[in-house]
Amino acid sequence: MALIVQKYGGSSVSDAASIQRVARRIAQTRLAGNDVVVVVSAMGDTTDELIDLAAQLTSAPPTREMDILLTAGERISMSLLAMAIDALGVKARSYTGQQAGLITDAEYGRAKIIDVVPGRIQKALDKGMVAIVAGFQGVNTETNDVTTLGRGGSDTTAVAFAAALGADVCEIYTDVDGIFTADPRIVPTARQVARITYNEMLEMAASGAKVLALRCVEYGRRYGVPIHVRSSFSGRVGTLVTDELGTGIPGLLPQDAQAANEAKNGDDMEAPIISGVAHDRTEAKITVVGLPDVPGTAARLFEIVAISGANIDMIVQNVSAQQTGLTDISFTLPAADAPAAIEALTKARADIGFDELLFDDQIGKLSLVGAGMKSSPGISAKLFGALRDAGINIEMITTSEIRISVVTRAEELDSAVRAVHSAFGLDSDGQAVVYGGTGR
Ligand code: ADP
Ligand code: ASP
Ligand code: MG
């Protein structure tokens, strides 16, 4: 008997029939003798629809009210799921994040988990019940207000409860069969990987692969929670996110280990050089034109951006023009953070002393990720060559030890991803299945 945390994403519970399908899987897991904690997301695209509704009323909704609004989505799915499981004759209880004991700081919309106190969840398990927890929400105990963890945060809720309860595995059920070498919605020939390390998945998630939320992977790495990403539609064995690849497959339940051996859906004897190609269309680029090229300018500029609350990603500074001693700095940031950053910079224009600001939200970012990169020469050359052959211009470049990222025009991003994926020989013979979801 194991303690299993299962998380079901929005596309897995998009309507009554899907909720019933998921309820059957949960009931089966419970009836097989396991203790089961379920974390559930809002149905389908509910969260996006609630955001759209708020946007019809105001361009700057108060963040506290926004969090109260968004947590409603998960309250709907958690209670419906509890009813569906109960109807199958298995006892289930649903809990909001607050009731479940997920304590956060007071940063609405991007709250960080401070503590998980799963007393009520443990009690429900002790009584033989399936405990259902609303994803992506918690409470700040100073204000006693509900908070949300940021988009995709139900993954983090699941791993946080898995860590707090000492679960054997955290299963993330979604609308694809696991983690692929690229988003199967863009690259149908993407290859499913059997295993990936926390570090590689961290880079993939940080580079936009939304199959797992970044903070969920960080949390999993810190507490050593094996994460198993799989489809709620097919039930096939998916992808394990674990420590450095070695022998043994921690986190696979016995029935899955057998299926994994039979299916041999990947080869984890030797770690591949490249784990995948990620993409991100949620960033924008700001160029600050005509900055004085003197010590302290960049510090001043980015202090102001930081105070606006924006998270900087890439930065490029041009060489300064000799006659003028002026230079330009371009940086990328989440498009959602751009209005505040632009407002703050515009106010500080005289102080920093630049000529003008250019804003561009029609950019895309492609990232090639792989731990083997640091010991294999020629990876950048091959990446740039693939983009050249596809006629795609590179606007910015950054690298880390195990990642190379480039910015392209937004409309060229899909072709760029396909070109790079092929150039690195990542295509499989088969076609990846996307079982549901709208890709929103
Ligand atoms: P959920 O609603 O279950 O949380 P998400 O939409 O957040 O699902 O994440 C699953 C989606 O992630 C897939 O449908 C796929 O389009 C996308 N995705 C992006 N990169 C990858 C990747 N490397 N492997 C698998 N899926 C990916
Ligand atoms: N419902 C939230 C979102 O859409 C949280 C989640 O699904 O993980 O971002
Ligand atoms: Mg998600």
In brief:
The protein has 440 residues and is α/β, with parallel strands linked by helices. Helix content is 35%, strand content 24%. The chain has two domains: 3-265, Carbamate kinase (3-Layer(aba) Sandwich); 274-423, VC0802-like (2-Layer Sandwich), CATH 3.30.2130.
Write structural notes for this entry.
InterPro entries: AceGlu_kinase-like_sf, ACT-like_dom_sf, ACT_Aspartokinase, ACT_dom, AKii-LysC-BS, Asp/Glu/Uridylate_kinase, Asp_kin_monofn, Asp_kinase. Keywords: Amino-acid biosynthesis, ATP-binding, Diaminopimelate biosynthesis, Kinase, Lysine biosynthesis, Nucleotide-binding, Transferase. By secondary structure, this protein is α/β, with parallel strands linked by helices. The protein has two domains: 3-265, Acetylglutamate kinase-like (Carbamate kinase, 3-Layer(aba) Sandwich); 274-423, VC0802-like, CATH 3.30.2130.10. It has 14 helices and 20 strands. It has an eight-stranded mixed β-sheet, with helices on both faces. It has a four-stranded antiparallel β-sheet with strand order 13-18-20-19, with helices on both faces. The protein has a four-stranded antiparallel β-sheet with strand order 15-16-14-17, with helices on one face. Strand 15 and strand 16 (326-334) form a beta hairpin. The radius of gyration is 23 Å and the shape is globular. The structure holds adenosine-5'-diphosphate, aspartic acid and magnesium ion (MG). Residues 9, 152, 155, 210 line the site of magnesium ion (MG). Residues 9-12, 41, 152, 174-176, 179-180, 182-185, 209-211, 276, 434, 437, 439 line the site of adenosine-5'-diphosphate.
